[in-house]
Amino acid sequence: MDEIALGLDSAGHPFIWVVRSSSWTPPAEWEERVKGRGLVIREWVDQRSILAHPAIGGYLSHCGWNSVLESLSMGVPILTWPMGADQSLNTKLVVHVLKAGLAMDSTLDEVRKEGVIYGCNAISSGVTELMSGESGRLARKRGEEIGLMARNAVKKDDSSSVKLDNIINSLKEYTATVLHDC
User: Going from the N-terminus, what domains does the chain have, and what CATH number goes with each?
Assistant: First the structure.
């Protein structure tokens, strides 16, 4: 947690950080240094509402599938930090296939037997690149394109919506026919 705090501070970009630990206390004087550009929230938040806000320029994520869908559907690129399960595969999809995110640079920090331990240098570097670097600009542009495609796909009277309505209507008709025959 301290490494994340120091990395966010060092990157110098505005941020919202949802901290799910009730016992963590930030490093000395950290809150004063990030005052006015950093917001730490220690309670549940509606992640989709935050990601939908136009001021959000990127998302540091473990790359769980729900987080990937929520972020990209809102057009927000991802700085990926996979920790297990399907997250490494999701990272590859986001970074290498969709090109709507960047992977943390594991060369900047220590690698241990249990995996990569990202420190403040990797976090700061990743945030800086996503928010102001050329690779980040391309990922943000691609994230916006994917977000627009996702929103268009679920518009009323658009492809997904029409097909879903067709399925529902077919099931209603089928059910009515079956019940009538009984």
Answer: 2-181 (3.40.50.2000)
